[in-house]
Amino acid sequence: xxxxxxxxxxxxxxxxxxxxxxxxxxxxxxxxxxxxxxxxxxxxxxxxxxxxxxxxxxxxxxxxxxxxxxxxxxxxxxxxxxxxxxxxxxxxxxxxxxxxxxxxxxxxxxxxxxxxxxxxxxxxxxxxxxxxxxxxxxxxxxxxxxxxxxxxxxxxxxxxxxxxxxxxxxxxxxxxxxxxxxxxxxx
Length: 187
Ligand SMILES: [Zn+2]
Hints:
Blueprint: H1 4-23, H2 30-35, H3 40-54, H4 58-76, H5 79-87, H6 95-105, E1 112-119, E2 122-128, H7 145-158, E3 162-168, E4 177-183
Antiparallel strand pairs: 1-2, 2-4, 3-4
Helix pairs in contact: 1-3, 1-4, 4-7, 5-6, 6-7
């Protein structure tokens, strides 16, 4: 599980042990799970264990997990990422690149992330079958992993500050989760 090291950093060994206990025989072999899509049942096991353990700090932990995924991406330097950065080197807007990075970072997760430009200055990230909030009910938008991924990618790879806002969330009864991304003006 790609976010597993990140969880250890954030939640400490206690969280990792809880997740391991929940994982049971499913196994947590890092390489194998990185290569294959994680089954949703397994993913929800982790999520629910983390929810129990973290309570209200789940969202901020999820955000940090997203940021750590990107830091790992920078260390690993996957060829797809290098290729993407090269493609957008001279692009007028980096928002499409940020969208593609979000899609790439979600590879292997049970949900499905897509990115499109809603207008010239507004990137829309859509998460179908969102594994983060599936089966939950919340009054406010709940999903933070992707927002962490997006913010950290923009900052770490592009030296850009972006604002992210979840405008639709399955946990609020919407059909899918949507995150709007805009570049913050540098004063
Ligand atoms: Zn959501």
